[in-house]
Amino acid sequence: MDAATYRRLWKESQDTGRPIGQLIAEAEKSQEKSATTRSTGRNGHPEADLQKRCVAWFKNNYPDIAANLFHPNNEPYFGSRGRDRAAIDGHLANLMGVTKGVADLILLVPSADGKFHGLCIEMKSAKGVQRDSQKEWQQAVERVGYKYVIVKDYDKFTSIIKEYL
To answer: Mean per-residue pLDDT for 127-141?
Structure first.
């Protein structure tokens, strides 16, 4: 929440006598609901929700190597600055190494059995399928000794990690 919103809520609290904490909680809840509906429709964003839960589990269970699991943030930032600016941002992102199809999570730790250099994890919703660019990237990393998995639920993620490590 930005500073202007806090100032507005503070003024409303002073004017109405309602507790500031209650107003902030209501505003945050409204903001979350609006953002989820706006960006992903009625069902929220199941892949992102799954990924956040899995990353939290990993950090809690493997704190010594938590920094080795990361999201490459390979999605170009386009923001809301207009089409011309988005085209420039996209071009710059490509020049900086953005590659289509990169997995959602990458674990830079060799497998316990020594067969793989690292683990690439593509998160999908229950009905999600790989795009062609993701299949191509999967083949590229598997050719050079990385394991690639598709995860559609939390239990699969935890079992894959436990088996891998």
So the answer is: 96
